[in-house]
TrEMBL record:
Gene: LOC117540814
Organism: Gymnodraco acuticeps
InterPro entries in alphabetical order: Ig-like_dom, Ig-like_dom_sf, Ig-like_fold, Ig_sub, Ig_sub2
Domain (Ig-like): residue spans on this chain: 126-199, 204-280, 295-382
Protein name: Sialoadhesin-like
Keyword Manganese attributed: no
Keywords: Membrane, Signal, Transmembrane, Transmembrane helix
Lineage: Eukaryota, Metazoa, Chordata, Craniata, Vertebrata
Bilayer-spanning residue ranges: 393-414
Pfam families, per the entry: Ig_2 (PF13895), Ig_3 (PF13927)
Signal peptide: 1-17
Residues covered by region (Disordered): 455-488
Amino acid sequence: MESLILIILVIFPGVQGGDWGVTSGDQCALRGSSVIIDCQYDYPSGRWVTSVGWSKLLPALGRPGHFILSQLPLNSAYFNYVGNYWSDCRLRINNVQHDDEGAYLFNFVTTINRWTSKRAARLSVRELTTVVEPSTVTEGGEVRLSCVSGCSTPVNILWFRDRQPVPQPGFQATREDAGRYYCAVQGQETVRSAPVALNVQYAPRKVTLSMTPSVIKGGAVTFSCSSDANPPVPQSGYSLHKDGHLISSGQNHTVSNIQPPHSGLYSCLAWNNISRSGISRINSTQLHLDVLYPPENISISMDPLDVVEGGSMNLSCSSAANPAAHSYTWFRQSAPSLSSMLRVGSGPLLTLPSVDASHTGLYLCTARNQLGENNSTEVMLTMRKEYQGEQTVPVLAGIGVCVFVALLLALLLFRLKQRTRAEKKPTVFDFRLSERGSSSSGPSDSVYANIQPNIRQALPSPPPAAQEITPLSQRSHHEQEAPMSYEDDVTYATVTIKPINSTHHMNSRSRAGDDDDSVIYASLA
């Protein structure tokens, strides 16, 4: 019996005796987590604990409210008493919320008396807080994540972005890193902070230009620009370009009356004041606009422009079309009175190898593609006849050439003959006047003049003026030795011989005797 009492005293320390009292500590808990309020109690010996309970002070009421543990299941999802009935009075609170924050009191009832703790255990509820520095960053910048709990109790923290784990709290931001970040307690991932957004700004990417690639002439086409950018590209940040030249500003551009000159390469330029690798304006891929239209500006050219009967003629038909004309048809109207046209050929080239009267008339061609057909303007083909007289022209030309050559040869022969004569030895004419009975010491004959024909030209008629004949013996020595000149100047001499009266002559001869012999007035050698 004594040993049984000893065992009871060891198991139930309060039975052996002590003072009334409850010892508890303050706690800090994160919202959503579970917390245990530590508590120990004691009572005098000889008493048995019949019931325990916790109560929370209600500030609005100014008095405590009680949680009757007997009315709570042992494994309650919210409050659990994890103490015992002799010394341990701990209380566990699951999924702590801000409403659970406050002061808690423990009380117990024994077989003789009841006791309530004099000092309340205070519970503080705090939040996990995520801090993202900086919250807005340009792509390529550094980002640092930190988690603040508000409780001194250290906990292991995990990081998540849009419910996906984040390996490191520090990183170099890319556009894919933009999102909502939060921290959580390891092992209690439901205990998490409120999410905080990270804004990563970047230059436009995936700049796209959309339009209808093919449109019929006269229709409408709308160009639309789009891009992925942060911040988004404003309306004024888009511009439309054609073949490298600015067309308009804005995200959309409409051309209501499309024409062939609108065909070309189009691109869209986007800008949001954020640069990428030093480039702030990002271009889209180029799109080709193809304006379709039926044949137009159809014309006919003739080669040659003038044709004679029997000659050949080529008629060419050309047009502007998109797509290009795939067929050409030729028509002829032989008479103005005929209203219908006669089909005479096909293809862009019509050849008439031998033109005759049946080929003359108005010609036109029709060009056709997938969008329609159109006619050219009419051209008139005329023919002129070849005259017989025209055939004598080459003959007359040949005769004229022959006559010209013959005259040229005759002139050359005449000049050659003259030169041959001129090269012969010059002829000297001496006119001598001889006197009979002259002294033996003087010359028997006197040369009064030398006549030298010009070797270069024929001797012209002598001038009417007469010159005095000077005997050659009376000339100066210088004049006698002067060399013969072949200059173009000609020296003329005129000898006037007057007849002597026969009576006077006879008288003179009788008076003179032997001294009046006949005189040789001129001698021609």
